[in-house]
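Hi C.,

You asked whether I'd gotten around to modeling the 152-residue construct. I have! Everything is below, sequence then structure, no commentary in between.
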Amino acid sequence: MFREMRRIKNKMSDADALQLLVDGEHGTLGTISANGFPYTVIVNYVVYNGKIYFHSAKDGHKIDNINSNTKVSFSVVGEFEVIKSTFTTKYRSVTLFGNAKVISNNKTILYEFIKKYSDGFLSEGEKYIEESSDIPVLVEIEILHITGKERV
C-alpha cells in the first residue's frame, strides 16, 4: 500500500522516527482539496497514545478537506543544515500517512498541548482549559505508515 524508501541506507529506526515525531515542535499537514489539489499547512501538534493531535478553527480549508477525505500526510523536520562545501544536507525528518478525523473536545489532549508548549504554566493552562468557552476543534490522526529519514 505504501512505497518503501528508495535510499534505505538513510532510513531511521522506527523508534527513532517516533521519537523525532514526539519531539518535533511543528509539522506540515497535507490534505486533498475538493478540486483535487493538495493543500499543506503548518500546525502545532502533540503525540498522545500513538496518535497525532492538532487544534484548528471550526471552519476552514483543512477541516473541509478532512471532512471530505480523511487521508492525510504529515511531515516533521528535526535537524536541517546545508553543508555548502560538500553540496549536501544534514537532516532528520519523518513522514507519515494516516486517517484524520475531527473529534469532540478533549481536555486531556488540550492539557497535553499545555505540557508540550507551555510547560512552565501548567496550572494556568489547566485553569484556561476549564474556563474557556471557545475550545478549538481537535483533529486526530491515526498513523497508518511512518518513515524516518536521516543523513547526519
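If it helps when you're writing up: Residues 8-151 form a domain with the Pnp Oxidase; Chain A fold (CATH 2.30.110.10).

Thanks,
B.
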